[in-house]
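Known limitations

Files may contain more than one protein. Parsers should not assume a single record per file. Below, a two-record file is shown to illustrate correct handling: read the sequence, read the token line, then continue until end of file.
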Amino acid sequence: MTTNSPETRRPGRIPAFLKEVAIIIVVALVISTVVRTWVVRSFYIPSASMEQTLQVGDRILVNQLPWPAVERGDIIVFDDPGGWLDSSVTQQYSPNPVLEFLGLVPADAGTQLIKRVIGVGGDTIECCDAEGRLLVNGEPIDETYLDPGITPSDIPFEVTVPDGHYWVMGDNRSNSLDSRFNTDSAGGAFVPEDAVVGSVFLINWPLDRIRGIGTPDEVFAAVPAP
């Protein structure tokens, strides 16, 4: 009769344990890749164009799912429609390979922008009424997300947004190369729906800045349909 001592069992059990660990790691990496590719991605805010809502150094999470649909007031990340970003700017972006692998920063963020949606397809946006407010479909809006002293726009304009596109503006209006300044760009002033990466829903870093980012429905509540 033979017996199995702990010493004789251990060599067979260690490889099995390592195999289980390897499977867990592979599954975790697959899930992480799926999540950051199609569900949620993390971005770093490099400029002041969205202050004070989003500040330089903030890290944000972006919902990449096709729902809910993009609405007026949402903050979106989108691919450069064409000519919005100067090549000297895009060449400066070099992501940390470790953070990129972990999904904490995207590999293509150097060709993407972040702005707030002011108008959707069919909307007419004008600047400005006698009180200096933007008008959307003839209705003035009080943009509560702008800091005191920030004017809705220093330049007058009137545009109608094509179907399937968005008119976007930064919250730091005097320091944002948004739709207003890209009418002559190769991609035009409007952001096409298929260029949208997703909508911002959370500031997740630094710790003292953690907060949800919602849609300011009250700002656009009185805006009529196009």
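...continuing to the second record:
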Amino acid sequence: MKRVLSRIVIASGLVAACSTLSLAHAADTAAKPDAAKGEQLYLNGELSRGVLACVTCHGAAGNSVIEMYPSIAAQPFEYVVKQLHDFRPGADNTPPLRRAANGNPAVMTSIVTGMTEQEMRDVAFYVSQQKVDWELAARATNEETFERGQQIWRGGLPDRNVAACAACHSPNGAGLPGKYPRLAGQHVPYLLEQLKLFRSGDRNNEAAMHELADRMNDADLSAVADYAAGLR
């Protein structure tokens, strides 16, 4: 029996080692992001391929001052790369996972279609290294919905099986690196629009968000969007 157990332990160790080596090899062969090149693309774009300068909509160093475009400074590198991919049509020309209202193409779709994989990684790495300008960041403005927004953020809506936003986006709205975005200081109109797109299914790149938003009414969405913007 001991010999059998030993063989199992050894075999498990070999599998784990092989998995680790495979992951390490994948990391080595993946293109390393270049922040300097990302900055150049962010500031200048590449008009010959229809890639507009990111700064036009997302502001200096990723701090947007246009309410319908998100601030992307300090967003997780992995998250930004994933979102850029999700704006692209599928290999068999299936619709992108991220679309605008009523299934229309998002503004980002035409832009990312002209970008290479390396460029997406470079620009994502650049914005992930930038600092949030809290002087420009959005703030909560609706005192009447503060308590409702706080309730949803901290405790969810148990009667409708809506989990607390803080569980994934953290109590202070900073998000979880590599997985969930920072929502603190994000523009309210942008947050509200994304919640509605999740609910309608036009943004179809996070099943959990569709299910949660689908259980919330317009008043709930507005309240929690405003509350999230005011987090620090």
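Parsers that stop after the first record will miss the second one. For reference, the second record is described as follows. Confidence is low (pLDDT under 50) at residues 1-28.
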